[in-house]
């Protein structure tokens, strides 16, 4: 018992002696020199302060410097300035006369880092830190970080609260904290296996995670070469909204139903300013894909290259968004077209899918590519299976001077017409196997200019088909020798061997100057036009029926008119045409049915 009391007495005497002697041991100049060594080791620059530092014991001896600055030798503004810097000193080093800070606390620091147009930073990275540093903790309260890149874009973090723990220069350093960026609060944490190795250019382990409402990301791997950062490891990134995330990076995309949730999980590597995702699993708006991506940051803007494979790719929402953009452009035809967002980076992307969904339309195996380079957009569908047929198309557009200037070429073969037209356009009156080509071009800074300059041409063929609305066989029997008709003339369907037609597009109208339909015992010639921005139809044609009479064939000519719209076309005989032809051919007098119809359709 006496020994224990004696030991306690000795401890109390030593503590009392330290309290009495500590103010003599802690000199402001010694602390300043020690801090200067630490700061020089990290930044290569000296530390300055204003006023008289204060010494306190709470419970460790702490020296506080006010209005502290760390200058930059490449910028008139200080590299770091803060309201105060507190240095906590360890007991044991202080007893033996070593004034070394073990904890630094920075109050309201402002960090200013930047790179000039030549790529030169305004700071000097330490080539090697001293391995005998006793600094075990760095605390930042209410800090601000400014970073200006070579492209003069600024990164601003506010409300930075962080704690860096590094108990031993040879041990792992860990960091944890929070900050605000673009009005979005986020938390972060991470660790570096051997910071001294990283500074000296050697490889070391790195773990980092960030969590916020618009973005969650984590990385586990290795990094090397702090000056020209390199690394590789496993990376996971998720976001509930690509549009919201793009706004944080100063690339506003506006509101929309597309480009929502997304994620990427991949082995990632960074080398020579190129970030590569190998064997990546990528999801965008519920569309799952696998492939590889790389982003090159070497140039003045990012360059994205990649190959992605989808089992199923649903583009229905994107088709609706495109339709909405077209509707908005039509509603404000004199406003400039929104093209700026298409040219924010270079792109070379190749996509394949076992199935593509576009609303009610279904495409089978599809291969496509998209490139953006030198202010030019090129889209290509190498081959797509469309209802059993084959579709290929290419779109090329210039994005210069905020003007849309582009051309479109397309080809289709072996298309089941009824299924395709019914799903795509709601037209279900024609059947057969179709093929055709189309070529279009246009240019303009707004919708009026684009539509006003639209021009193109194409051709189409339908083989072994039928059309609904009239039965030519029954019609042939209903027409008498005097030109009158009786019975239900419309309804039913008619088979044909082949239908060929050409069409042209000029401004906002499509015209078909020549359509020829051939069938068993009849031919149809047809011409018409329709406005592109209206569903109405206007066409006129003639049906020629070859009726055998004994050893001779007596053709019957039936002019007709097509009206209505694409979804509900109307077909009526052109009785005025019949009347003119009957007079020219000396057909007997007009029958009662034709007289009544002519009174309705003068």
TrEMBL record:
Coiled coil: none annotated. This is AsmA family protein. Pfam families: AsmA. It comes from the Bacteria. The lineage of its organism: Bacteria, Pseudomonadati, Pseudomonadota, Alphaproteobacteria, Hyphomicrobiales. InterPro entries: AsmA, AsmA-related. Residues 3-124, 335-506 form the AsmA domain.
């Amino acid at each position: 018992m006496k020994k224990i009391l004696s030991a306690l007495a000795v401890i109390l005497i030593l503590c009392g002696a330290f309290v009495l002697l500590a103010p003599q041991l802690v000199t402001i100049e010694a602390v300043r020199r020690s801090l200067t060594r630490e700061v020089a080791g990290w930044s290569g620059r000296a530390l300055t302060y204003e006023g008289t530092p204060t010494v306190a014991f709470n419970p460790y001896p702490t020296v506080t410097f006010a209005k502290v600055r760390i200058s930059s030798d490449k910028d008139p503004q200080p590299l770091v300035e803060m309201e105060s810097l507190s240095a906590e000193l360890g007991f044991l080093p202080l007893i033996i006369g070593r004034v070394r800070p073990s904890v630094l606390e920075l109050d309201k620091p402002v960090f200013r880092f930047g790179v000039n147009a030549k790529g030169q930073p305004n700071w000097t990275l330490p080539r090697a830190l001293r391995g005998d540093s006793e600094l075990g903790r760095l605390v930042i309260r209410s800090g601000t970080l400014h970073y200006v890149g070579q492209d003069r874009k600024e990164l601003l973090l506010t409300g930075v609260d962080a704690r860096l723990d590094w108990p031993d220069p040879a041990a792992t350093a860990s960091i944890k904290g929070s900050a605000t960026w673009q009005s979005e609060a986020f938390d972060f944490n991470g660790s570096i296996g051997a910071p001294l190795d990283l500074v000296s250019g050697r490889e070391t382990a790195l773990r980092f995670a960030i969590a916020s409402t618009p973005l969650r990301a984590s990385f586990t791997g290795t990094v090397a070469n702090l000056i020209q950062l390199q690394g590789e490891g496993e990376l996971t990134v998720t976001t509930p909204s690509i549009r919201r995330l793009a706004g944080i990076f100063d690339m506003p995309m506006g509101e929309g139903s597309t480009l929502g949730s997304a994620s990427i999980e991949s082995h990632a590597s960074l080398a020579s300013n190129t970030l590569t995702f190998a064997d990546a699993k990528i999801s965008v708006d519920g569309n799952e894909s696998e492939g590889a991506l790389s982003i090159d940051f070497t140039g003045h803007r990012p360059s994205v290259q990649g190959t992605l494979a989808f089992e199923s790719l649903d583009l229905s929402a994107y088709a609706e968004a495109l339709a909405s953009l077209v509707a908005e452009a039509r509603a404000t035809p004199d406003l400039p077209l929104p093209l700026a967002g298409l040219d924010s980076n270079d792109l070379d992307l190749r996509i394949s899918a076992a199935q593509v969904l576009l609303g009610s339309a279904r495409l089978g195996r599809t291969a496509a590519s998209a490139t953006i380079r030198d202010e030019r957009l090129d889209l290509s569908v190498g081959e797509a299976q469309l209802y059993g047929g084959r579709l290929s198309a290419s779109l090329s557009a210039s994005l210069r001077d905020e003007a849309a200037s582009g051309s479109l070429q397309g080809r289709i073969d072996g298309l089941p017409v009824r299924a395709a037209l019914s799903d795509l356009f709601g037209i279900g009156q024609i059947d057969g196997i179709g093929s055709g080509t189309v070529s279009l071009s246009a240019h303009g800074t707004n919708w009026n200019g684009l539509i006003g300059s639209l021009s193109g041409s194409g051709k189409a063929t339908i083989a072994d088909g039928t059309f609904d609305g009239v039965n030519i066989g029954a019609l042939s029997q209903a027409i008498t020798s005097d030109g009158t008709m009786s019975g239900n003339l419309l309804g039913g369907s008619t088979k044909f061997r082949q239908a060929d037609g050409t069409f042209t597009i000029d401004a906002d109208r499509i015209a078909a100057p020549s359509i020829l339909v051939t069938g068993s015992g009849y031919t149809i010639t047809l011409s018409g036009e329709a406005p592109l921005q209206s569903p109405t139809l206007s066409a006129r044609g003639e049906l020629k029926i070859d009726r055998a009479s004994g050893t001779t064939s007596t053709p019957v000519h039936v002019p007709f008119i097509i009206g209505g719209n694409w979804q509900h076309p109307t077909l009526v005989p052109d009785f005025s045409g019949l009347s003119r032809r009957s007079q020219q051919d000396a057909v007997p007098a007009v029958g009662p049915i034709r007289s009544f119809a002519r009174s309705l359709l003068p």
